[in-house]
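Quick one, T. Sequence first:
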Amino acid sequence: MNQNSGQQNQLEPNRGKNRNRSGRIFLLSQLVFLPVIIGVLSLSAATVNNRPLMPVLHENPRTVRPQHDYDFVITDRQLNEVLYKLRPNFSPDKPPKTNYVDHALRFWGTKIEFDDQSLDGVQLRELLVDHKAFAAAWGENETPLLSVTPNGIAVRTQQGRSTVSHVDHLLGSLAEVGTPLSYKISAANVEGRLIDMVRDGVMNFSLNQREYEWTTLALAFYAADNSPWYSPEGQEISYDYLAKRIMRETQPDGVCYGQHRLYTLTILLRIDDQMRTQEKARSPNGPAGLISPEMRSSIMSYLGDMTSRAYQSQSAEGSWDGNWPDATIPVRDPDTDQLSRKVLATGHMLEWWAMAPRELHPPRETIVRAAQWLSRVIIEMEPERIERNYTFLTHAGRALALWRGGFADELYRTKMISGENDQLLPFEGSK
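Structure tokens:
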């Protein structure tokens, strides 16, 4: 053994002692800092948990009514025929598709009654929110439409004929027909209330999901103020932020050629008007409306641009297609039936314009040509084709009713019952 080897052996015990001493120091340091780390994490979690995870909501949704009654857009006789053709009278040999029922509820409301086999308003809503009614139509072996989750009650979406077609469209429909948050609903024999469905929608909401127009719409109808809320991940959400996200998307990308986004933005403007008027009446220095003045200006500018683009791309017959913002670009789904595409695009266009402030309207001739084309197509359409395109047609029929200053159930009852206008057609199925 050489001298260096002896020195090495003498050093090894000291190194071991040093490593043990260093390990003890490291462990003690971690024990000192661990409570601090835990404290910071707990404080962070408490801060997130103390933030509101739900917007402030009213028990009853607001009512946003049409502002225009233009008999030059569609006559009483034409509207009479359109509404009669679009009754929710589905094939009796199989259950009505749930998205048909969902759209029919939004179109007809809960008060409509028919004296034939058409589903009335009460039946439409119960098929969507009462599991017993759903199971009676679809059978006990069908997966329920509504299911209980840790956050509330979820709606089965885009999973076949027995499910709805748009994320939170059912919430939007229930809001627009005036359903209170305390309204009883049942999910596979578990009783709940509409607020449970709203809570689940909010807690599972993601700013990156494909469509959030109907979530935004539903929350706006129930909104008590413009206070922000937070996602479970800690993201701040407000109606301003949602509007900004909606306008960020490229048109006509998105569901129904992006037209749902235009309708939702229009309703945000209308509810903002209501809130500002009501708060001003209560207190001149009351809180702001649903959106900030800056965001309102941005929405008006955005929708004005959409109107300008649509005006320039309208076809000679009065319709629009899936390329409504620019008719020079190809339609993205050319294999889809062209008439269906045109009914979809034209009906949705007329629907948001009917609810929009007059300064967002195109020239009167543009509206008249579109409404006349749409009404003629619907009146001439065969029953089988009406059922195949029913979801699109509900937007079209609703739009035509809105241009006459009311909702479909109001105009069906008054114009078809009263006989005030000698142009009305006497239908055997009307009350």
